[in-house]
Design brief:
Layout (H helix, E strand, L loop, with lengths): L1 H17 L3 H14 L5 H10 L3 E9 L3 H6 L9 H7 L5 E21 L5 E21 L2 E16 L5 E2 L1
Length: about 160
């Protein structure tokens, strides 16, 4: 049983370490988004859709307080205290959109074989998905800020909880 658990950990580490091509694609998105600061909301929403991103979550508020912003924070892509101070310091109507795009999927299965050559405890299947996440902030209908995460992994082991990091 210890060997099976160790095998699962090794495979998860391999999934996590080997799937780094997302960094190159993230740099491309980063460069394009930097040139789009100042664009209108509709144009940016169309751009994200054209790039294959799906809307994950959205919220909006006029002159949002720190508590309201933190209430809407999402795991992994949340605003830091410094970002809240920097982005939301001016009054206005803010609209925050969170997008995700699945870049790659890796699957594997692990099984244990007894001395008699028989399978024991069935196969354990592993699935690791790599995502690019974008958090876009609009103020009064204009794109003012974004942050991009280019190598977010979501790993699922059959029968276990899904892990996203």
């Amino acid at each position: 049983m210890k060997v099976k658990f160790l095998g699962i950990l090794v495979v998860l580490c391999i999934f996590h370490c080997c799937a780094s091509p997302g960094t190159t694609q993230a740099k491309i998105y980063q460069g394009r988004l930097e040139t789009m600061i100042g664009e209108k909301t509709e144009a940016m929403e169309s751009t994200f859709k054209d790039w294959g991103f799906a809307l994950m979550y959205t919220w909006q508020g006029e002159n949002p307080s720190i508590d309201v912003i933190k209430e809407h924070n999402q795991p992994i892509v949340k605003f830091s205290d410094d970002e809240i101070e920097q982005i939301f310091s001016e009054e206005g109507k803010y609209h925050v959109l969170y997008y995700q795009k699945k870049e790659a999927t890796t699957d594997a299965s692990i099984g244990t074989i007894t001395e008699g050559g028989m399978g024991y405890m069935g196969d354990t299947s592993l699935a690791s998905d790599r995502y690019t996440l974008i958090r876009a902030v609009f103020k009064d209908g204009v794109f003012i800020h974004f942050r991009l995460w280019g190598n977010v992994h979501q790993t699922q082991v059959s029968g276990w909880k899904t892990i996203r990091k």
